[in-house]
């Protein structure tokens, strides 16, 4: 028998219609390996409304309820409560929405579902723009990025606002389990989803999912970029359990953000000064995260 | 058990007796007492249901949809802006063929803010694929909820339904209501058995992407066919209901003293109650007027209205809403189904907008106007607003 760190069971069949190198496709494959067959997934408008394939084909070996763009939180609330009525409390319910469907149009339904403490997992797979509709800016698009609605142009109109920190919003709301995960760290991703499955109550997981098409990178760089996102501390891997932070990966050396940005066409227009500005933002956020970890662990001990 | 309850309480009782399993609702005046009463039922252990106190009406309908799709009976209630906010999900519910039942307390849309009765809110939803019934009394409201679950959950139907009542006139007014025995309701209404429910043993995509050459048009046609069969289901279920509970409402259109009428008013909801009183008074004076109360607006009672048109010399259609650019919705559709079947004059009276009082005196003037048109054989004005401030013609 082989000794693998990733479960060999597959709940995502070949033949899906994602782009080459799609991080969101990998994310779902890993997530279902973690959750298993007794899972119901609900997906709003997003790339994953298309990836499973065109009727009558399907990619997933679990029931998939498609729903409207802004209602993932409400949809999983309804499934969960109905399952409780039917006595099927061993079935896991997972909402699976993109960053636009979560950070923007779906934030209200998400906030409501988490506040009501349904026993559900909400995953925001984050490809940092409205990718399904062709790379339009979302609230989760990072500072500095080109998108089709922030097209740089002669006036240098790129995304001038910081990325909306949805995971931090969920922590602030008191969601008992909040985690970030990344397709380049599948063991960590699977562990977090399994933990979410075992815990009762609302869970929120933010998964970094490279989008070669929208980020203007070659499809064979998907994992490399995702790894760099963690090593440069652009996208730290951490989990917050009952308000207590734990940073899962603390890069030993400080890999410059420049290495991450310069790999991607969406940041091509940035000047060295702008790259430095982003480095400062990343350093600041990382410092804050370290302090949050220290502070919340100290509070728990006291 | 006969008791005095409001229309809102009657709707809540309907949900309770139907053994609804998931309620997902958001408060809005004048619907609030529906969701409060259900909360009370659940808190007292009188109703065994999950109650999702959502953060908006849009989410209320979304959660009803997903819960119903999981295979349990759901219920919600709303009004006006709440209903408008649900619009997107109303189509979702219908296209997903989910037999959700919702109580709508008819209220005017803003601006300016008005919480009083008119039908603009539900008329604006007439193309969403929902069955629509307009109740005249609190008893009818309760009974409609029970009958609608039976109609909607029929395997040949599988469509959602909304039952309307006028804000305050019914929602907040007590009437004697016979609350049926739970055992009788259980015999009448079997448990939901949704054929296309989410099932981990039958993994499927519910609502996946479909190409123009996929059977998307066929789905819509199947839904249209299902709708075409609803009329007969309504009549069948009402007959069954009458046998068990001893009450009946006249099918899609209730006729009141239409025999040898010179003019018949086509109305819905509570204006019908006032109109019946006026009809009685006028009949006593030898004035031959009658009433057709449209209960179901969806499916539209085309056969019934064509038959009614044969019995009289003119129809006066009273709308409590207005479709800007033409006339009232009930009028427009009534005229539409009469085309090629009847040449009698049809006039539209727009009344009761924003809760404007529709009194017996003003209705009598409308009936007198109708009788004049019946005699003349032609309408003076196709669409007329009745009861405007300062309009001497219609003031009592």
Give the SSE map:
The complex is a heterodimer of chains A (302) and B (396).
Chain A: H1 23-35, E1 39-43, E2 64-66, H2 72-85, E3 92-98, H3 99-104, H4 107-115, E4 121-126, H5 166-173, E5 177-182, H6 186-198, E6 203-208, H7 212-215, H8 222-231, E7 238-241, E8 244-247, H9 257-261, H10 272-301
Parallel strand pairs in A: 1-2, 1-3, 3-4, 4-6, 5-6
Antiparallel strand pairs in A: 5-7, 7-8
Chain B: E1 2-5, H1 7-17, E2 22-24, H2 32-43, E3 50-52, H3 57-70, E4 74-78, H4 80-95, E5 101-106, H5 120-123, E6 131-134, H6 138-153, E7 161-166, E8 175-178, H7 182-188, E9 205-206, H8 216-228, H9 230-245, E10 253-256, E11 263-267, H10 271-284, E12 289-294, E13 296-298, H11 302-310, E14 315-319, H12 329-338, E15 346-350, H13 360-376, E16 383-385
Parallel strand pairs in B: 2-3, 2-4, 4-5, 5-7, 6-7, 11-12, 11-14, 14-15, 15-16
Antiparallel strand pairs in B: 1-8, 6-13, 10-12
Helix pairs in contact in B: 1-2, 1-6, 3-4, 6-9, 10-13
Plain-language structure description:
Chain A has a single domain, classed as 3-Layer(aba) Sandwich (Rossmann fold), CATH 3.40.50.970. The longest helix of chain A is centred in the last third of the chain and has 30 residues, at 272-301. Chain A contains 10 helices and 8 strands. With 302 residues, chain A is α/β, with parallel strands linked by helices. Chain A has helices at residues 23-35, 72-85, 99-104, 107-115, 166-173, 186-198, 212-215, 222-231, 257-261, 272-301; strands at residues 39-43, 64-66, 92-98, 121-126, 177-182, 203-208, 238-241, 244-247. Chain A is globular. Chain B is globular, with a radius of gyration of 21 Å. Chain B is an alpha/beta fold and 396 residues long. Chain B has helices at residues 7-17, 32-43, 57-70, 80-95, 120-123, 138-153, 182-188, 216-228, 230-245, 271-284, 302-310, 329-338, 360-376, and strands spanning 2-5, 22-24, 50-52, 74-78, 101-106, 131-134, 161-166, 175-178, 205-206, 253-256, 263-267, 289-294, 296-298, 315-319, 346-350, 383-385. In chain B, α13 (360-376) links the parallel β15 and β16 (383-385). The longest helix of chain B is centred in the last third of the chain and has 17 residues, at 360-376. The interface between A and B is large, with 45 and 43 residues. β2 (64-66) of chain A pairs parallel with β9 of chain B, so a sheet runs across the interface.
